[in-house]
Amino acid sequence: MSIEDKYQSLISYFKEPARRKTFQAWPFKNNEKCNANKMAEAGFIFSGSSRDPDSAQCFFCHKHLDGWESTDDPWDEHLNHSKECSFAKMKNAQSHWTAAEWFELYSQYRRNLIERKYDEQRKKVKELFDKIRSE
Ligand SMILES: [Zn+2]
């Protein structure tokens, strides 16, 4: 996957339904507090595997959390472990945000992604440069 494609797919996680789709193998049921809908609502995407079935990551601040319990509140856990995350600070489903809140968070998210993308590209160029110089 090219850097361009990777960042396009990361941008899609700004939408709650795209995050919810990642939770197909989530171990908690819908009647439990820590269910897939609540996880997606609170900004998480599933990042687990068969060995690590309850691992999730915030799409916005990239904080990784595992060891979830059925009674955990995803918003509370998110904020407790990532106090500076602007998404977690909202403590409210995106469907309840104002247009101004949407704009602010979306712009912040795009800025963060662009910075990450440039860091990654800078690293690649430096590696190439080092390789050429060492030949
Ligand atoms: Zn976060």
UniProtKB/TrEMBL annotation:
SMART domains: BIR. One of its GO terms (molecular function) is metal ion binding. Pfam families: BIR. PROSITE patterns: BIR_REPEAT_2 (PS50143). It comes from the Eukaryota. Keywords: Metal-binding, Zinc. This is Uncharacterized protein. It comes from Ceutorhynchus assimilis (cabbage seed weevil).
